[in-house]
Amino acid sequence: MADAPAHAAPEPTGPAPAIALRGISKQYPGVIDNDNVDLTVAHGSVHAIVGENGAGKSTLIKILYGEQAPDEGTITVDGTLRSFKSPRDAIAAGIGMVHQHFMLAGNLTVIENIVLGDEPGKKWRLDIDGARERIVELSHRYGLNVDPDAKIDELGVGERQRVEILKVLYRGARILILDEPTAVLVPHEVDELFASLRGLTAEGVTAMFISHNLDEVLAIADAITVIRAGRTVAHVLPADVTARTLAELDGFPVYPDYMIPKVFRHWGIFTYDDDLAAAIDERRLVAKDSEWEHALRWATVAAADALRARMGEHHRTLTGHY
MF terms per GO, please (predicted)? Predict the structure, then answer.
């Protein structure tokens, strides 16, 4: 049984929440992925879920999206108890998933990708004009700004992500699960995504934001749930915590400031300010993913921003030699 969360934000009051997970547990042979997880997501909010690799985030969202069944616990959507046997059931309940790795056909247009598998018909004829009209309306309504006739291969990463968002909105989703949505984006695309999310939530759409980037979580989230070792350890509001607090809660080692230069000297890098990105570009950093995540947490916000700007979508997969 999980302990009570170490930190707690006020539970939403008033109307039923968009999502309420209670006592969600999932176990595999020798491994407990989710252990009595609780989660409440308010309507029209961006709710972040954070935790280190292996904390149980992926299993939890797979359960919510109907890709896996929980061993125990309940799922309530808009006050109605639900049991999902497949993603189709979740979609029917208004839940859509925007995957980290886009599921788009590059040789098809935006409109063809969006309607694929959900083709609109009018008296046994494919109603592409009707689909285009609806896609344009959704794009304008939520500020997604996507050309429905553009080929996917012609679009940038941020635009492709907006197509994925449009695809789930087209199918009626009012609750979006975004799995590491900024991992492949450069800074200006992150800004565009956050602007889109604010436009969506202003229209009553709910977003669940799964991320490792604590600074981004603090910038976009209305509420945060921290999961550690399969358990809910905290429900917090961004105004009440810092990136360091979140890092401590989700189990990452947090080093005092005076140790930061030593970390980078170990990698042959002698600064952690705005010049860090240039140093890495020059010397080609070799680091395991876990070390890389830790380094971003130890670095200053300015250094993290510089890293992302320099490395773009490959910022977590650098290889090479000193």
Answer: ATP binding; ATP hydrolysis activity
